Amino acid sequence: xxxxxxxxxxxQSRQSCWKVDLQSIKTDMVNLAKQAGEMxxxxxxxxxxxxxxxxxxxxxxxxxxxxxxxxxxxxxxxKYPTFQFLGEETYKPGMKLGKEPTFVVDPIDGTTxxxxxxPYVSISLGFAVDRIPCVGVVFNPFTQKLYxxxxxxxxxxxDVQTGEEKRLPVKQEKEEFxxxxxxxxxxxxxxxxxxxxxxxxxxxxxxxxxxxxxGGAMVHSARALGSAALNLCAVAEGxxxxxxxxxxxxxxxxxxxxxxxxxxxxxVSGNPGEWEIPVDHRKYLAVRAAKxxxxxxxxxxxxxxxxxxxxxS
Length: 313
Ligand code: IPD
Known about the structure:
Mg(2+) binds at residues 88, 106, 108-109, 252. By secondary structure, this protein is α+β, with helices and mostly antiparallel strands. It has seven helices and 16 strands.
């Protein structure tokens, strides 16, 4: 596969000057994700224990988070020395995703699951150019399911054990949305547990679940996989209909963003009214592919959001 000129067409028809071979980046990221997966599944008990917390006692970090990020960044920076790297574990307040080709990496998305040995953990490797996600690889080393997407070339799920690869969405029928009351929705607690954002989240969840007689949407149910990347991949598969969250960062969503969009899904703001958002928006509503009704389901969902989330980009 030759070089691609990325046109950054996600609603912004800007011509990019970067020539980047997205397929070869994807191949490298898949190989790294598999090797990082070994580091995660073979981590000792102490390396899978929370050694530190970030902003509060629910925001965990283990030795393995740092070791995996170091492994990935070292390899990528040797092979692509002119590109940038934005990773969860080396992020410092004030760092921003720029226009340069940038690897956007969460070494362990689902650290809380990892600490508790709940097997929904992923390595989330994204690549953005002009701030537009172009390549995404998400690998759960416990289930051996790997998702990848390349802008303009589709997205796929691979069973790493058997080598079987299927194009996304796996639910090829792309059922029309008939209303929020027929949907299965992913939500996440995240680590912020107070203030306006927590109020908006908890009141919105209550509305989504409540009966129609009591003013709710009465969705079929809610799920929380504990990894933003895996939630996005499940929406890309079509096994979850929607995913609503505030608080996650570009490294949690960059890879899943490509995988979802290449599967025909869409991603808009978690706050009502914003249809076009950047990858570091921090408030998201992801919607699976559908023959019809995507716009209507977004509008219906927004009608149940209680207030607004105020996470700063
Ligand atoms: C977290 C997970 C979680 C989401 C949080 C993220 P981490 O990432 O994706 O599902 O609710 O917003 O920060 O900390 O496990 O890398």
